[in-house]
Design brief:
Blueprint (H helix, E strand, L loop, with lengths): L2 H11 L2 E5 L9 H12 L6 E4 L4 H11 L6 E4 L2 E4 L1 H10 L1 H7 L1
Parallel strand pairs: 1-2
Antiparallel strand pairs: 1-3, 3-4
Helix pairs in contact: 1-3, 2-4
Length: 102
């Protein structure tokens, strides 16, 4: 399987997927920690996470998959939602909770 196939499988087989630096319990960058906090504030405790620091191919491949240059990246029901700044705005407006409830 190609890296793009692996990513596609991850985002389509799991309802909420976060590509991040580190793990939800031990984020290794502030932006990833921010998104984990936002998800938990929205009541999402169980989500599939991928530590991009463990796999350079996934780290580069996810940037190409969504045509989005930064990590973290959140996917809900197979759709790219955004990175840290977008998710903060969506959380503040209440929009993110609606997306997560679909």
């Amino acid at each position: 399987m190609s890296v793009q196939d692996v990513i596609k499988e991850q985002v389509t087989k799991n309802p909420v997927v976060l590509y991040m630096k580190g793990s939800p319990d031990f984020p290794q960058c502030g932006f990833s920690a921010n998104v984990v906090g936002i998800l938990r504030a929205c009541g999402v405790e169980n989500f599939f996470s991928v530590n991009v620091l463990e796999n350079p191919d996934i780290r580069q491949g996810i940037k190409e998959y969504a045509n989005w240059p930064t990590i973290p990246q959140l996917y809900v029901n197979g759709e790219f939602v955004g990175g840290s700044d977008i998710l903060r705005e969506m959380y503040d407006s209440g929009e993110l909770k609606k997306v997560l409830q679909k």
